[in-house]
Amino acid sequence: MFSLIDIWGSIIIALFLVYRRICPPAPTSQIPVPTLSSNRGLKRPIPLPQETLDHIFSFFLTSLVDDLRFGTVRDYRVQKKCLMQEILAVAQCSKQFHEIMFGSLGRMWASCGLGLCSRKRCPSATASPARTVWIITAEQGCLPLDIDLSVHIILEIASINYHDGIQWSKKQQEFRRFRCVRAYPRSLRQLEILRSHTPEEEVIRLVSDCCPGLTELRLVRCTIFNDPKCWYWRTHTANQDHDYMRSYDPAAVVDYANNMALLLRRLPQLEAVHIGHYLISINAVLTHRTDPAHKRCHRITDMTDHIDGALVVNSLQFNANADEGPPINTNSMRLADKGLWADPCRQCDREFKEPIEAAERWAAGIMAAHFKSLKHVSFANFLSGGRVAPSSWLVGRQQRGPDLYVRTEDPSRPRSRRMQPMVRVGDRWEPSQVAQ
To answer: Region Disordered: what ranges (predicted)?
Structure first.
C-alpha cells in the first residue's frame, strides 16, 4: 500500500516533467546581457538626507553601546577599542559614512582618542554638545583646566585624567597646583579620576556637592609605579611624600578605613569604590630594591644611584644632560624603572601577601559596615601586575538581631568568603577582635 505522501509526491514530479516539456528553459547563450544603454531608462537611487543618516547612525551607536554596556567606568576606558572595531566596520564604507558616524559618536561619547574634546575643539565646556554627551573619557591634556562639566546635563559616565593639576614652573622654580574640574553634573553616576596629585579630600568634597547620586567612584593616584618619570617625584623623595603608601598594621587600617568612609558619607548610593592607596608602607619599596632575597627575583638591573660611574660618570655630565624639569638631587635614591615592577617577586609574596590581604579585607569590611549600598571595594595592590592593578573585594552586610556582620570575598579565589562581626564605637566601625 502506498501512503498519501508517496502518491502526492509522484503527482508533483509528473506535473513538473510535463511543464518542462511544454516550456523548456532558454539556452544561456540567448539570455540578453545588460548593457549601459539598457540602464539609461532606470532612475538612480535617491540618497538619504543628511539628517536621516544622522538619526540612523545615532540609533545604531546607541544600540551598540547598550549591547557593550560595561560594569565599571574603567571598562569603558579600557574596552573602547572593542567599540571602535564595530564602528570602523561601518565608517570605512565611505567618506560620508565616516564623517557622519564619528560626528554622531562625538555627540554621545566625548573621547580625546577621537580628537573630540581636545583643547582646539573644546576651549570651553560649551564647545561640546552639552545636551547629548553621556560618556567622557578624557586623557591628560585633553580638557582645559578648571573646566565646568556641569553643562553636560545628561552625562552619566566620566573618566578624567587629573595629572595636569600640578605643573612645574621653570620661572618660579616650584610646582604650582591647579583645579582640574570646577563642577560635575548632577546626572553623573560613574566617575574615574586618573593620575591624580589632588588630595582625595578635595575631590570627594567636590563630587559629593555636585553629584550625590554617584554609584561608582575610582580614585587613581599618580605613583612611582604607574609614572616613575613624573617630574613631581624628583623633588618629593621623602617617605611622607608618598602618602598613597599606607600600612597594614591593624590599628592603622581601622583608622584609615573609617576616615575614608567618613569622607565618602555624602555619597549614600555608592555601590563600588576604588581607593588608590596601597595598604603597605613605603618601606616595602626599599626592601624589594635592596634586600638580597628580593634582588634575586629581579629580571633587570636596578640602578639606585643617579651617577653610576658608567653611563653617567660625574655630576657635571649629569647636569649637562638635564631637561627643563626640576633639578634632581643626585644624593637621593634614583627611582626604579617600570621594568623592575613588571615581574612578580616570590619573596614579596612570601613576606607581604598575608598581611596585605588581611588589611584589605578589614578595610573593605569597615567600608561595607558604613554603606548599605556598597557591593565592591578595591585598593591599589603592591603584589599585582606591575604593582598597578587593583585588588577586588565583593562586600555585603547582614543584620542578625542587634549584631551587624559584613561579608568579604575575593572573586578571583574560590571559598574566600568570610563573615565578620562588627562593633559600633561612636561614628566608627571596628572588627570585633579589635574592639575587644
So the answer is: 404-436
Q: What is the DSSP letter of 88?
A: H
What is the total count of domains within the chain?
2
Contact (CB, 8 A) for 145 and 178: yes
Range of the domain at 330: 303-336
Angle at 23 (CA atoms; ends 22, 28), nearest 5 degrees:
145
* C-alpha separations of 367 from 220, 247, 333 in Å: 18, 17, 36
CB 372, CB 417: distance < 8 Å: no
Task: Specify the pairing of strand 403-409 against strand 135-138.
Answer: unpaired
**Last residue in a domain, options 207, 222, 237:** 222
**Distance, CA of 258 to CA of 366 (rounded, Å):** 7
User: Residues 273-302: pLDDT tens digits?
Assistant: 999 999 999 999 999 999 999 999 999 989
Contacts from 249-255 at CB under 8 Å and sequence distance 24+? 250/358, 250/359, 250/362, 250/434, 251/434, 253/279, 253/359, 253/362, 253/363, 254/362, 254/366, 254/428, 254/430, 254/431, 254/434
Instruction: Specify the pTM.
Output: 0.83
Is 358 within a domain?
no
Please report, for residues 207, 295, 376, 428, the alpha-carbon distance to residue 359 in angstroms, rounded to integers and kept in the order given: 27, 26, 16, 17
> Phi/psi of residue 177, each to 5°?
-100, 145
Q: Rounded to whole angstroms, how far apart are CA atoms 261 and 253?
A: 12
Q: Give the model confidence (pLDDT) of 96-133 as tens digits.
A: 888 888 888 878 888 875 544 444 444 333 344 678 88
Quick one: how far is CA 192 from the chain centroid? 7
Q: Cell for 242?
A: 608618598
Match 545588460 to its residue by C-alpha cell. Answer: 34
